[in-house]
């Protein structure tokens, strides 16, 4: 049986295969999520159409595929009861289909029974009302029965931890872990929590749950940069500050490749990436989106500037293609132009190692080398990094290097190849 | 949106007034929400108008027919008994009308706005209702789709509703079939076969596997009863085609051994596959997710992939049962009102109003064996129950399955008088995660059919009083060694 990328709505035509939850030879239950794919609007999980064994995985992770492409193949192997039924020679596939209702009933009952927890409906309700997943609760009652007290004890000891209470019935899939309706009595302000908003939420939570974040702050004197940009303007070159930041960043990443990496905890390796694909966080009406400038390490300032401009515009018009939104190895967020913020603790664009945010540039009195006070244009930088992968000292050295380039933009000439 | 179009604002708009829809409406109203219920035909849906209720009117009459010999036996002489299907149809109409008026009155008492018309989604927060020349638009915060499902003919058989009938038309017959062929594998097929047999039709059942999704022992007892009642059973057969002439039908079957057999009758009933009623509903525009079979996908709160739109009942697939639709309707309404509700179909009972009735909940013996290492099986024949002897209805058995490791009850299955009522004890036991002692300890009224359940529980450990030791040990050993 072929498992294909089917149309998951919103007019999508293609998707990137993000990650597999299964491997070849795995036994899967019907509706068990097999693979996570990303479209330009959302991340979705593709569930197993039937119980069976994964025969082959056809599309590698990271590949973009169009609707209709076969992602993997599955050898359907029914749960035991149905199996005995279909073993009877007279029952053809067609005749089983004719009585689909009955067959579903069987599958349903079987799947559901696996969720059985030994608790009375009253106790189960207490659990629901507190968002407790009863499968996590250890029953102290006789025969392993979960009592009201067990649930309350669980709530107390797990107060800090948020238990995720998502569940799907009727052949649903995990991707369908729909939200609860609002808790209180109805009010007329409901914002649908799905599409991009939901995807952002998912990614942020994943990042923060996985990565021990450490953020450190730095300031950069951008007076020279401003002056240099003016000079270029005279020559009719309009290069944005962001382009300079990205260029400087790429140069710094060459020195400190550990921040352009990906940690693979399972295999116990850190992959250092050769290419610098820099994501730029862009604020749009629908929320945050991150277009990616590929291969910054081999692009000129002017190319970076043009591309950033083009991508930002497309982002705002909601016209980015999937390729333009995936594959970043490091992400920057330039919140300066938005007018506010002197510092932040940005959340890393998982599975990257670090993210840098540039804040508002402001004229400030600064004590110069010669102890004179001068009016300088100062900008704050916040850099979050994955403390599993790098330590504070490395991060400081990295930002120092970066700041030096920003403060003396002409130094970047030294890096011309 | 059309200029000048007027939108009415509602907390909850429900499409479909079947059991799923009207239960949702009443519960939502009880919880203080403003509710609009849109129904294009009649309140009560399939269940009330052409499903559960009509079929049970027939089953009820059939039960009375079955009791006639016994009535004579206890000294009541009724003279010559005859059955008139036309009169039963009148009675059915009376019952259905009364019940429907009851639903209408309840909607009114709960201040539910009931609108007659065909509804479709115009946008994520708008439903249009077409009623004759009028088209009204309703804006909602939450919507519940309860449009049900329809039976579609299998490709090889053309249901003409004259001699080739489905679950909707069989209970509309005005004249009794002389020989009814029943083709199907579900509870409706059993009910049809039994009812018409009792009315005096000759009945032949054609089935794929013969277990009808029942526990094996129950299915075996049913087959024994059919044999006694002279219902012919074509097991492991598939109907390839059906032809009809003005006064007869002929079904061509393929048997397990590959032979082709032709069975003739006056009428044939065909159990059909159900298809969600979503055509023209406009849900695909909204991107509401559907299963491969086209049913609307929902979670344990009956929410669709759009969290403010819910779906309940047959339109969501799975077992096509009103009992499920009713629960889902309530859960949807409660969730909308901010309550923590949940649908859990683990202990959804299966019932059949046959003669005698059949009921089951939880795992069958085969299912339990597949999922648990060591199980116990207890079984008690209804013939051993004193009260069954009094009322002269001794067919059947009660069977109970438990986990030998911790005594937890896994399933209860029965065929016999009172099964449909008695199963509630089993359902509550399973929901409470009862163990053998929990079911054994309480008093069971005497004399009553209830005692069959008690003795079945007792027989799990060879403690049933009205069962010979040999029979109890047998069942115990079988469970362990198999
Ligand atoms: C012969 C028979 C016997 C049965 N026996 C039993 C039984 O013993 N026990 C049991 O639990 N179940 C039984 N059922 C099944 C039961 O009838 C169904 O499961 C139940 O009716 C489903 O309820 P529902 O609310 O989902 O849909 P329905 O009852 O199908 O109601 C849907 C309603 O929506 C309306 N509708 C559809 N589309 C629109 C639209 N666009 N706009 C406005 N209105 C619309 C329809 O007119 C209909 O009234 C039986 C069914 C049959 C046919």
From TrEMBL, chain A:
Keyword annotations: Acyltransferase, Lipoyl, Pyruvate, Transferase
A GO molecular function held by the record: acetyltransferase activity
EC assignment: 2.3.1.-
Name by which UniProt lists this protein: Dihydrolipoamide acetyltransferase component of pyruvate dehydrogenase complex
CDD domains xrefs: lipoyl_domain
Gene Ontology cellular component list: cytoplasm
UniProt keyword Chaperone present: no
Cofactor section: (R)-lipoate
Species this protein is from: Parageobacillus thermantarcticus
EC top class, as a word: transferase
Stated family: Belongs to the 2-oxoacid dehydrogenase family.
Region (Disordered): 163-182
Stretches assigned to the Peripheral subunit-binding (PSBD) domain: 118-155
Start and end residues of each Lipoyl-binding domain: 1-75
From TrEMBL, chain B:
Disulphide linkage map: 47-52
Segments forming domain Pyridine nucleotide-disulphide oxidoreductase dimerisation: 349-456
Binding positions (FAD): 56, 314
Chain residues that bind NAD(+): 184-191
Domain FAD/NAD(P)-binding: 11-329
Species this chain originates from: Parageobacillus thermantarcticus
Catalytic reaction annotation: N(6)-[(R)-dihydrolipoyl]-L-lysyl-[protein] + NAD(+) = N(6)-[(R)-lipoyl]-L-lysyl-[protein] + NADH + H(+)
Cofactor section: FAD
Residues at the catalytic site: 446
GO cellular component: cytoplasm
GO molecular function: dihydrolipoyl dehydrogenase (NADH) activity; flavin adenine dinucleotide binding
GO biological process, alphabetically ordered: 2-oxoglutarate metabolic process
Cofactor: how bound: Binds 1 FAD per subunit.
The keyword Cytoplasm belongs to this UniProt entry's keyword annotation: no
Coiled-coil ranges (or none): none
Similarity comment: family membership: Belongs to the class-I pyridine nucleotide-disulfide oxidoreductase family.
Keyword Flavoprotein attributed: yes
Note: The active site is a redox-active disulfide bond.
Enzyme Commission number: 1.8.1.4
Keyword entries, A-Z: Disulfide bond, FAD, Flavoprotein, NAD, Nucleotide-binding, Oxidoreductase, Redox-active center
A Pfam family annotated for this UniProt entry: Pyr_redox_dim
Name assigned to this protein: Dihydrolipoyl dehydrogenase
